[in-house]
């Protein structure tokens, strides 16, 4: 059984499971807008393989992290735009 973790997304503490990607945790939490494109369009994970770069978020202060390629960690702080 996966370990229960707590992550912070845009200031709210949310549950997550060890082994899931940040993108999966965001979707599970009902967050479907990860960033805003240069033209003002909402973007979220598209390819799920790290190729499209649509899933970029800020993780623990580091901007432009591909959320589909990073596994959640307990206490991780995630910001979408």
Write structural notes for this entry:
The protein has one helix at residues 22-28, and strands at residues 4-9, 12-17, 35-36, 42-43, 56-59, 62-66, 77-79. It has 81 residues and is mainly beta. The protein has a single domain, classed as 2Fe-2S iron-sulphur cluster binding domain, sarcosine oxidase, alpha subunit, N-terminal domain (Ubiquitin-like (UB roll), Roll). Strands 2-1-7-5-6 form a five-stranded mixed beta sheet, covered by helices on one side. The protein is globular, with a radius of gyration of 12 Å. The chain starts with a strand and ends with a strand. The model has no long low-confidence stretch (mean pLDDT 94).
Output the keywords.
81 residues, Ubiquitin-like (UB roll), two-stranded antiparallel ribbon
């Amino acid at each position: 059984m996966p370990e229960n973790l707590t992550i912070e997304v845009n200031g709210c503490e949310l549950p997550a499971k060890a082994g899931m990607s940040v993108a999966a945790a965001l979707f599970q939490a009902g967050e479907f807008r990860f960033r805003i494109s240069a033209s003002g369009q909402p973007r979220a994970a598209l390819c799920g393989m790290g190729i499209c770069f649509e899933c970029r978020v800020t993780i623990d202060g580091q901007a432009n992290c591909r959320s589909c390629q990073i596994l959640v960690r307990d206490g991780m702080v995630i910001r979408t735009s």
